[in-house]
Amino acid sequence: xxxxxxxxxxxxxxxxxxxxxxxxxxxxxxxxxxxxxxxxxxxxxxxxxxxxxxxxxxxxxxxxxxxxxxxxxxxxxxxxxxxxxxxxxxxxxxxxxxxxxxxxxxxxxxxxxxxxxxxxxxxxxxxxxxxxxxxxxxxxxxxxxxxxxxxxxxxxxxxxxxxxxxxxxxxxxxxxxxxxxxxxxxxxxxxxxxxxxxxxxxxxxxxxxxxxxxxxxxxxxxxxxxxxxxxxxxxxxxxxxxxxxxxxxxxxxxxxxxxxxxxxxxxxxxxxxxxxxxxxxxxxxxxxxxxxxxxxxxxxxxxxxxxxxxxxxxxxxxxxxxxxxxxxxxxxxxxxxxxxxxxxxxxxxxxxxxxxxxxxxxxxxxxxxxxxxxxxxxxxxxxxxxxxxxxxxxxxxxxxxxxxxxxxxxxxxxxxxxxxxxxxxxxxxxxxxxxxxxxxxxxxxxxxxxxxxxxxxxxxxxxxxxxxxxxxxxxxxxxxxxxxxxxxxxxxxxxxxxxxxxxxxxxxxxxxxxxxxxxxxxxxxxxxxxxxxxxxxxxxxxxxxxxxxxxxxxxxxxxxxxxxxxxxxxxxxxxxxxxxxxxxxxxxxxxxxxxxxxxxxxxxxxxxxxxxxxxxxxxxxxxxxxxxxxxxxxxxxxxxxxxxxxxxxxxxxxxxxxxxxxxxxxxxxxxxxxxxxxxxxxxxxxxxxxxxxxxxxxxxxxxxxxxxxxxxxxxxxxxxxxxxxxxxxxxxxxxxxxxxxxxxxxxxxxxxxxxxxxxxxxxxxxxxxxxxxxxxxxxxxxxxxxxxxxxxxxxxxxxxxxxxxxxxxxxxxxxxxxxxxxxxxxxxxxxxxxxxxxxxxxxxxxxxxxxxxxxxxxxxxxxxxxxxxxxxxxxxxxxxxxxxxxxxxxxxxxxxxxxxxxxxxxxxxxxxxxxxxxxxxxxxxxxxxxxxxxxxxxxxxxxxxxxxxxxxxxxxxxxxxxxxxxxxxxxxxxxxxxxxxxxxxxxxxxxxxxxxxxxxxxxxxxxxxxxxxxxxxxxxxxxx
Length: 1024
Hints:
64% of the residues lie in helices and 5% in strands. By secondary structure, the protein is mainly alpha-helical.
């Protein structure tokens, strides 16, 4: 049962779905009967059958297809339903609103849901196309959603056309609406043929109208141009068609016909089918005039075009073209202008045409329109022409050319075009790195806009001013721009503001808020904006989703960026390719990520887009450094190029990349300098995300474990405050991997790693989850179950040690747990048969060998891993991870959790502790006394962990698991009387009496063998 159905059930007793055929009403009702609690009937079958219902037996009655009944029959059915028990649920469905008398007769008030509640969302449409028809193109899913409005049956027809028939986006609507196609036939028989006469008349008129406004339909009816019955009938039928799902509306907008239905009706009209006549001239005049007066000039021009009136259409475009474009009508304006001969286009109409081409992504076409006008001395100085032409170059990344066109002429006046010219100039200056000049020009634009008082000019000037502002001041400018754009009904500028706002929120690391703003921008841009703005909005939404860990959603948005860019002929795919690459990098898909980064870099180079180039280069750098075989030369080239290309706002990213390369090459001072510079640059530019990334580098290159921990704690706090929970968890994993991490930090790191794996993240910086180490813990020593040293994830081969004594030196230092061992004692332990004065030099040689083994690249100071001072020689356990130390740390953490009552968490830690104990410490040195202390301590905490696990399993009723732990304990110590007793008690409790008797006998034999008292048999009866 869907969540929507659950909400309905909480709302009342009687529920009714009203929607046209194909919206899924029957499927929804049948699901209500799947659990056997309800009975499914068609309305006709229910009336035809005798229906005796014992009062206690009826829980839910489901009745479908009420429209098959006449009005009197519907009311009769309602009376029958009213006799059901008071606690019975009634679920009904109809293809259109029912007779008012039916609702009045139903028991209680009915809760109605319509087509809008049953329609598929965009994500659901994409899933249907992908899973049922093999259509994975995200942009095709958007087109299907747009033409079908999510009508489930129509989505299926579209999927079949795209999948089996191979139709592309251009042929989509024709493939499902041309006469004779399955969808057109189904719509004619199941939808249009079902409509009452008044609704059919309104549908005929609605084919010519978009939007289908209530006031317009009433006006047409009052003028005798629309006959749907009595004068108020248009409103009745409008609302009826809306409830049934033939008319759909976006929030705040008047309804329109579902495009697929409109196309089928259009074909029927052209074929001369009955009831689909061509609208009269008076109808066209009235509707076009109404549209023009009520803020719908694009609808007026389109209606005039369809009516074959090119002169009136051209006049409408010339007068209202800017308003049409501001409302997002670029594609429609371009289409309408194709019918107007070149020689009939005025200067104003040419400006509208060029601007429309720019806004639809056809930069080359726009320049072809503007070029002859710019060559005309009488026109070339026009501010309106110059800013429009400059915006084309700006869109293409040709900022110097845009700046040249935006140079104010000597005769600059105080028009709106002059403000827009200055705003464009400010933007070009900012993109060229001349921020102070940009701020001055933006201030001039803002002053001129305020004096002029035009909302459109104010919006453009505030956007320009926001480019050079930061923090609260930037937010103030964007808020003012949004208010002005809304007053001007300039939807395109509204989206521009939202895009800028989302970008700022992402830079400020305010990701949940950024996603809300970006989603609003995407929703608005999808219906009414140029593809360039849609690309920007999708990029922002994808970026926010990526930071929030919604990787699948992020990748779909980035794929749409690429798809929209390619289809519209825009050179804007680079940001989408970067996003796809970054998603895959964060998920640990190294090779896929590398390929996508390289494509993004190539695309960014082609248009000189540093805003994408620098992040793509830095991302590629990290990918090249990850994994077992880092490509240092290629990583260095990528990082250095990023540093050369980075504008000030992106410099922290580049510095971090250079720092990682230096660290990988062993140039620790360079890495530390770059890390410090990145932190400073990030704090200066107020880039919280860059600061967190820089702090992770600081932690990796720090020679002080406390400093490394502090840096990672700050990074984790930044990410968590930003809502970037995956990044915060990554910082926790890195913190838990530090050699000095305590049991609580290691436990938290493991929990964080599990959360990341649940999201699909398989690796962090090339290291697989959940186990492994990263650059912050390059040296790991294993002594439990055997001795092994690994550096950068690779075991040290035996020949690298050069002698057995070098390995023994490391073992002794590990056994002393970081405490200094005097040199004389070491010489005696390593060379017991030689005179101490003869072995001093040998110890110095061994110390050099060990340091080389642990730091072959010589990236750290000499005493980073092994210290040597007057007190002796010691292992720095703050810079080396030792499995025995982790075991003891986990044991202490588990004990604390047990004392505080957090048994569930304690059990997780104890299970991990048991996994970590691979065998006794220094099992390859069984007779060395120096190994005894750590060996016995590690063994003792492991045994205590097994006892605690047995007790916790027993308390949780997991008796088989408890038996397993107890048997292990007896295999280690056959004389532990407490374990024997617990094993017998658990087996008796589990009903395993034969095994309990055998365990009891073993207990008795063990006790007799050491002359200890034997137990009594009462324990076998469970009475001990």
